[in-house]
Amino acid sequence: MRRKIEKNSETKMSFSNIRHLKMPEKLWKLVTKASKSDRSINNYIISLIENDLIKRKMLKKSDRKKFQSKNTQFRKRSN
Question: I need a surface site. Which of 2, 3, 5, 77 has the fewest CB within 10 A?
């Protein structure tokens, strides 16, 4: 799937593939419960996989995807 991303009047092409994951219902319910605290289920699963790949030295920490948690609140700067 190709998506155009407009950023600062430059057009970038982003490539993403949609993947599906099958897991037992009991495991899915536990993952859903664990992910409710701060992020979506998809982001939670990605972070688990990334943590394992970093531990195995197959992925650099700098290549980790950045997520914004549900609990993050934007604050106005006071000058």
Answer: 77
pTM of the model: 0.60
Q: How far apart are CA 37 and CA 17, in angstroms?
A: 27
13 has which bridge partners? 4
DSSP 16-71: ---------HHHHHHHHHHHTTTS-HHHHHHHHHHHHHHHTTSS-GGGSPP---TT
Residue 74 reports pLDDT greater than 50: no
Compute the radius of gyration of the chain from its Cα atoms: 17
